[in-house]
Amino acid sequence: RLGPQIEAASPSQPAAHSAAVAAARPRSCLCRSCSRAGVRAGGRAGRGGERRGGELRRRPGSWECRCGAVVGADPAGPGRGKVTGPAMADNEKLDNQRLKNFKNKGRDLETMRRQRNEVVVELRKNKRDEHLLKRRNVPHEDICEDSDIDGDYRVQNTSLEAIVQNASSDNQGIQLSAVQAARKLLSSDRNPPIDDLIKSGILPILVHCLERDDNPGRISFETKYLLHHLLSSTLSVNLRFPPSDAVPLFLRLLHSPHQNVCEQAVWALGNIIGDGPQCRDYVISLGVVKPLLSFISPSIPITFLRNVTWVMVNLCRHKDPPPPMETIQEILPALCVLIHHTDVNILVDTVWALSYLTDAGNEQIQMVIDSGIVPHLVPLLSHQEVKVQTAALRAVGNIVTGTDEQTQVVLNCDALSHFPALLTHPKEKINKEAVWFLSNITAGNQQQVQAVIDANLVPMIIHLLDKGDFGTQKEAAWAISNLTISGRKDQVAYLIQQNVIPPFCNLLTVKDAQVVQVVLDGLSNILKMAEDEAETIANLIEECGGLEKIEQLQNHENEDIYKLAYEIIDQFFSSDDIDEDPSLVPEAIQGGTFGFNSSANVPTEGFQF
């Protein structure tokens, strides 16, 4: 018997129709929206044999639950109903939300393969965009609509030969249409035919259009835009434009009355120059420096000046070989002007240009010193911008790699007063560069070593030797070892007083063979210089575990290390009553057996602590 809310067959309907409707209803219909179930007459549902009728109402061709969901027979099997209409959409949303909580749950292989392909494509796009960002670009100008141009120039039906021929026409209308067609040709396809367009010979025509004074503004605008589009495309500039053809044209554009055209030419030349010393020297030989430097003036827009400074950096960048001396002489006065600029980007590029020049050798270092720029460079070590500090630290660090006289020029500018802040800087890269600078000072003469001591920088170096990251520790080891070579006895004794032995010995276990050898050299120098106090130093080394580390180094795979370790133990830690292990004796070097002259280079005064 049907429940009270299930309507009986209408008397007006045939009995066969009523029977068909009843038969279409499943034995047990479950509404997914509210979990109600209804059964046909005589059926059972629920627990304990309880009848549960009256939960569904009949509709033409289907059944409706109290909640409003329409329930029909589920073709997947008997005893279950399926929800259609709004309730089904809600349930699908719930199912999708639930699937998100499980990785790959409910996803077939085709879906996951498609998603992986989409991720790969996106990564490739990002990688391509990052590659493009490595090259300096200038903003695109807004292009005007072409609706006001007479005639409909159909790009797809126009050959490159026709475009080039029409671009050379004396008819300004035909010329304008040709330039527009070329521009549309580049922007109509994902892979525009840049190489074909360049090979067609349109580039000289575009340059000629810009040089003409009788062309209307629209032709000049379209020509500039097309030229910019060619310069800022995806491919490498020097691959698209053979330098023998393109560079002279770009140099002509530097004299254009249109400033944005000059800027685009500067940008293109900068990319060509930055591709290597050969391209750089070729562009220099065509006379790029003078017109480039002519743009450095107070009236130039800041974005243009940034590009000019960036090109100057590329002119100084490569050191194998370095730029011609004449070029350096031309550039240095401009750098002396730009180092006072307030724009951070211009200042950073200026200082990096100086760092590249000073990295080329002592001759270039002397040229930079003679320009008088060092007193303006040193104060930038305390600049508020980290990128300015980094560039300045590298530049002055390169200068102190030169002769003692060149190093003294930097010290005379009170450079060491900036280093307490640099050695405690939160950025480890700054710490490392600062200790590298000081390692070159301690490699100088004894007066320069004393300047480091007087500036109270030795305790800070030892602290970084102990607590810094490995790169900083490595530079600190060089600074200490250099001091043991260049310093006097009292200066080396000052190291001992600052407790340098324990952190110095701790580096004997690192995997970097060069660091281990530097530390062994430093310890050997200290012990040799100590003379009568050598036993005291040896005890300090033994107490901090250094002796055990040195003994283990006698088995090191590096020949220089195990020989030096054997020398130290044999000379300063061996006793007469201890038999020598023949297997630990290093092989003789060329010229005979090993000899040690502990009194060499040792001052006559005693070793004081």
Automatic annotation (TrEMBL):
The UniProt entry, under PROSITE patterns, shows: ARM_REPEAT, IBB
Q: Which GO terms describe its cellular component?
A: cytoplasm; NLS-dependent protein nuclear import complex; nuclear membrane; nuclear pore; nucleoplasm
Q: Which UniProt keywords apply?
A: Acetylation, Cytoplasm, Nucleus, Phosphoprotein, Protein transport, Repeat, Transport
Primary location = cytoplasm
Q: List residue spans for each ARM repeat.
A: 245-272, 372-410
What the record says about family reads: Belongs to the importin alpha family.
Q: What species does this protein belong to?
A: Otolemur garnettii (Small-eared galago)
The organism that produces this protein has a lineage beginning with: Eukaryota, Metazoa, Chordata, Craniata, Vertebrata
One Pfam family per UniProt: Arm
Q: Which PANTHER family match?
A: IMPORTIN ALPHA
The yes or no answer to whether the keyword Metal-binding is present is no
**Protein name stated in the entry:** Karyopherin subunit alpha 4
Judging by the UniProt lineage, the source's domain of life is Eukaryota
**Molecular function GO labels:** nuclear import signal receptor activity; nuclear localization sequence binding
Q: Where do the IBB domain residues begin and end?
A: 82-145
